[in-house]
Amino acid sequence: MDPFSLTTKDVAKLCKVSDATVKRWAEAGLISSERTTGGHRRFRAEEVARFQKEQSLGVRQNPGDASPGSARARTTVDKEIAGSDLFNSLVLGKEEEAANLLINSFLAGRSVGEIFDESVAGCMRRIGDLWLEGKLSVAQEHLATRAALCAVHKMRSVVPVEEACGKLLFCFALEGDFHELATHLVQITFENEGWEVMNFGSNTPLYSIEGEIRKHSPDLVCISSTVMNDVERLARDFETFSGNAKKLNIPVVLGGRSFLSDTIRSRFPATHYPGTFAELSELAKDYS
User: Fold this and answer.
1) How far apart are the C-alpha atoms of 193 and 181, rounded to whole Å?
2) Is the pLDDT of residue 69 over 50?
3) What count of Cα atoms within 13 Å lies in the side-chain half-sphere of residue 181?
4) Domain boundary pick from 158, 180, 210
5) Which residues is 117 bridged to in the sheet?
6) Do 125 and 219 sit in the same domain of this protein?
7) Which pLDDT does position 64 carry in this prediction?
8) Cys staple from 116: which of 40, 59, 232, 277, with CB 3.0 to 4.6 Å?
9) Domain range spanning residue 149?
10) Which residue, 243, 204, 198, is CA-closest to 217?
């Protein structure tokens, strides 16, 4: 029995129905469950997501790409680097276990922003640091990143949808930055506040977005950057991009490790520089 599976009460909260309704669904065979040794029902996150989508129970119609199959049983994390349950799940590539941990955090009352800041981003920073120290291989870092992406999208598929606010966000990572997790966290943060989001992913040239801006007229543009290899060229491209956005009265938001530097900020003037996903969530509310 998966120790991180969902209870009847958890499923009821996610589907916005009573506990009794969930029990009737299970008894009718509409949603699969397992029994603990004590006779209590437990539901797998993927099964709940499947049922929600089939029944249109408060889930968005584009819950993200289907994730790879469940990870096979793997060895434990080396004691030298072992950390939280989420950290260990990510390092081992156990995306379903990681997803259930994130979902349980949401059910415990933590906001999406808090989960991303304190759990996901915190774990990924440590994984990056361990890679730099040579304590994790490139393959392990990639496995952890993919597991994190799959986990957050599984969480996204079961978190209740907010009422649409009619606002559109563009988000992407700067050209030369291949870190895509940040753009997905931004996407989910805004979707959780009722925004429609067009996520262009990593390594996106600024000039390629300008035509899309004219076509779709977003209410906000959010750009992330973890690494910046050609500051001079990117700064020139950004000057043109931000100037055009300003003419269209479109605020530009910059976030990520690159923009923590005051020197970089002076070269990339923006409307906002949120430092956390919780701040980004508040920004989404302010512009709604």
Assistant:
1) 19
2) no
3) 24
4) 158
5) none
6) no
7) 36
8) 277
9) 8-158
10) 198
